[in-house]
Amino acid sequence: MKFDLNEEQADIRNMVRRFTEQEITPQAASWDEESYFPRALFSQMAALGLLGMAAPEDVGGLLLDRLTSALVYEELARGDMAITVSLGVHNMVTGTLVRFANEEQRQRWLPQLANGTLLGAFSLSEAESGSDAASLQCHAEPQEDSYLINGTKLWVTNGGEADVYLVMARSSAGRKAAGITCFIIEKGMDGFTFGKLERKMGLHASPTRELIFTNCRVPASHCLGEVGQGFKIALSALDGGRVNVGAIAVGVAQAAFDVSCAYASERTQFGSTIGTFQGIQFMLADMAMKIEAARLLVYEAAYKMDQGVSASMYASMAKCFATDMAMDVTTNAVQILGGAGYVRDYPLERYMRDIKVSQIFEGTNQIQRMLIARALLNNLH
Q1: Catalytic residue (one of 74, 300, 349, 362)
Q2: Which of 46, 90, 285, 307 is most buried as measured by Cβ atoms within 10 A of its Cβ?
Q3: Which CATH fold would you assign to the domain 232-378?
């Protein structure tokens, strides 16, 4: 298995790297400080094809393979994790529509999602159903040619800013996976409102809001896939999302490592740069090894998905290892800079605040370990 980039992949990575350095990195600190969501940036990314990475060419997309997509997310995250997470969720919505939409739904939403006219959001979690997502209680009551939706959804990335929401709601009795249906719900529908903007530790430039449904009437034609198959649709989106989060974690860790190396080469104490001290050298060496190991795990999971083989366990491994690694690397990066790492003159405190949530969303890392162990044990039988 080789990860030498072909010419197209190298060109895409270099294009995204230049864009990040010019349009994202210089603004990331102020976006974070002001909790500002730069919607105009998404139009710029759409012009590069990045909002259509998961969409085929016939609806205006690029349909990048998973490995190339991982390269994109890694490069963007070196500039700002918040923006990259919002983009990743948008592309998760687009990719899910590509796999499950009928022709009418495909033509109605995919071209506008791919060209950036519309922004997407994905909604599974609720206040009482996080890791136990199948216990969700947002209810969709069947009507003659529609569904009446009541309930709330929580922790929705792009909430309030997005135009198209994939919402999992219970359309029949029961508490488990059976009976959950996926609905395509548009901003502005009667009975669909938003809660307050969540005040988060990090990812300030990526809006997170509660979705509130009060007798929201959704046409039956807005059901995505088969009625009662919504939980399977949600799970199908998570493997790709986990690979993307792993790639994002690698990008953030690489950014933190780059700052640490530069600082260690310049900062002088006791008459020498601190990079000459063995204690710092060992920290940098460990950081570099962990980043490279995580990068390869992410690439392997992406490669397996591109080959069409079962990759759920590898996606969980990549997400879990890479995000734990990035938390460790950003923490050590702050330590290397000392007091300078703790203040906002340097981006490390932002990297550290942002990356924490990567161990929580797309399935907590404790859940990932359960999934990995289950897959390993099942393979013994």
Answers
A1: 362
A2: 90
A3: Butyryl-CoA Dehydrogenase, subunit A; domain 3 (1.20.140)
